[in-house]
Write a structure and sequence with these properties.
This protein is α/β, with parallel strands linked by helices. The protein contains 13 helices and nine strands. The protein has two domains: about 5-270, Aldolase class I (TIM Barrel, Alpha-Beta Barrel); about 275-330, no CATH class. It has an eight-stranded parallel barrel with strand order 1-2-4-5-6-7-8-9, surrounded by four helices. β7 (about 155-160), α6 (about 165-180) and β8 (about 185-190) form a beta-alpha-beta unit.
Length: about 325
């Protein structure tokens, strides 16, 4: 079975700039990634709201079509959060968008099942992306996989939402998946840079994966993504060219970075950050860090506050009232 790269710059990177890439930039990024022979290009989110050609958020799938080049070897995907989108707006698959990816919390599993059924009926292949998969213990993970086997998606994604994964935990999760997930369901890997390990984790994932199972690796140009960012497309493509006989054309990838992504990084400055390292190690929601960074809390004080968040047992979901009270208490 194969190894494929899914570039999610226009979707995950859109967390950085509110998806306001600009019409020409969206078109050129898609074009360059296609010329680079990227396996799957995620063009953005399908979500409720007004459509603008300047953003990589779409309310109807037809709005994506003008951004897709003709005669491309790449395939295309869009992300859906079931709690953010009215599935009745989804049209029948005409062959231009190959995959839908459903990102969901476990509490929304039943809604996700419904959306997956609609997607299948309309002719789409789909991924299931459980948010914060490392937050599941092994019994919960086995239960989730049993549900996923019943839904029968094209792929299941290991989503390291809070960037907390280390090698041993990745092995534990993948071993559980391999033992329980139907072999005809592919496995995708999506990492973040909280611990500065995304490339190392991706390599390890490729080393331990079952060669009889199709696998995907998510990445973005120059690691663009919600702080602290993602695995870099250019790095994983180069690695796959060298070690797995792939033939991605890096010149087009680097051109897209030089022209469109590097200027954005000068403005938004994603990348490894000690504050996000702390949230990952404590296994708590990154929004707590974002709140404290906005308050310009010094790192030693921030760590003490985050430890208090952890002690409350409310770290997995962002509680603004909780962090506001803890911040005010320490500011006195």
């Amino acid at each position: 079975m194969g190894i494929r790269v899914l570039d999610c710059t226009l979707r995950d990177g859109g967390h950085v700039n509110k998806a306001r890439f600009g019409e020409n930039t969206i078109r050129e990024i898609v074009k360059n990634l296609s010329l680079a022979k990227t396996d799957i290009i995620e063009v953005g989110f399908l979500r409720n709201g007004d459509f603008s050609q300047e953003e990589s958020n779409f309310s109807k799938i037809e709005e994506v079509y003008p951004f897709l080049p003709e005669n491309s070897v790449s395939q295309y995907s869009l992300m859906i959060r079931p709690d953010w989108y009215d599935i009745s707006l989804l049209s029948k698959n005409c062959g231009k968008i190959n995959f839908l990816r459903f990102a969901f919390y476990y509490k929304d599993l039943e809604l996700t099942k419904k959306y997956a059924g609609v997607a299948r009926t309309l002719g789409y292949k789909f991924f299931l992306n459980p948010v914060n998969l490392p937050g599941y213990d092994l019994p919960q993970l086995r239960q989730l996989i049993a549900e996923i086997n019943q839904i029968r998606p094209f792929a299941m994604t290991i989503v390291d939402t809070y960037g907390q994964l280390e090698m041993e935990r990745l092995e534990e999760i993948y071993s559980c998946i391999e033992e329980n997930l139907n072999i005809d369901i592919a496995v995708d890997f999506h990492s973040h840079e909280n611990l500065n390990l995304s490339f190392a984790l991706a390599r390890h994932f490729l080393n331990i994966h079952n060669p009889k199972r199709e696998v995907f690796v998510d990445a973005s140009l120059q690691g663009m993504g919600r702080m602290p960012g993602n695995l870099c497309t250019e790095i994983i493509m180069d690695y796959l060219n060298e070690h797995y006989a792939k033939s991605y054309n890096l010149d087009f990838v680097l051109e897209a970075i030089d022209t469109h992504i590097s200027p954005l990084k000068k403005i938004y400055g994603w990348g490894y950050c000690p504050a996000y390292y702390m949230s990952a190690k404590l296994k708590i929601h990154r929004s707590y860090v974002e709140f404290l960074l906005e308050k310009e809390v010094p790192l030693p004080q921030m760590r003490k506050i985050l430890v208090e968040v952890k002690k409350t047992g409310k770290g997995a979901f962002f509680d603004k009232e909780l962090i506001s009270n803890l911040y005010q208490r320490t500011a006195l």
